[in-house]
Amino acid sequence: MGQDDHKFRLGEVLVVCAPSGTGKSTLIAMLRERYPDFGFSVSYTTRAPRGAEQDGREYHFVSRETFVAMRSKGAFCEWAEVHGNFYGTATKPVEAMLHQGQDVLFDIDVQGAKQLKKTFYKGTFVFLLPPSREELVRRLKGRGTDSEESIAKRLTNASGELAQAEWFDYWVVNDDLDAAYKELEAVYLAGKCKPSLRPGILDNIMRTWENNG
Fold this sequence. Notes:
Strand content: 15-25%
CATH architecture of the largest domain: 3-Layer(aba) Sandwich
Number of helices: 8
Structural class: alpha/beta
Shape: globular
Distance between the termini: 18 Å
Strand order of the largest sheet: 6-1-7-8
């Protein structure tokens, strides 16, 4: 085309959600291995560092007061309270990566995705579906890490999450891992071609007509 395409491309926000046991972690790991340049935003948290964790590497460790102040100023594109501690993703670092043409992948729950939808409404939102309740039960039991009580809770949560799948842009059923990965990859690559993420590219091409007028 005579011009570097990346000069005319904004980064894509790819958001992937799924009920526990659907295989989300495996599929995301496969996507990251194939595309290692995804941007990563270090989250903020009010919990204390563990082991060898360092401030600014695993998390930005802040006080509860600081977190609440940042939240009140709209600093987070998504946040949640988990086991009494706050966790949140700052908007500005993500926006900086996107403006540099770097794609950002979010592995997040449905509530977090809903928050992201308000800030990054042009993002690509994917919901991974289990093929059936029975198969999800089989997978959860097969992990050997969950009690019957825990499995029952995860199934209840899955039902609530599936009820919200309708507002996502794409559904990928993880019945066959390789097929599901190909669909997830296809969705990601298609999202990169959205006109909203390629500002200026059409004008640049049209100018070639003017220059040869």
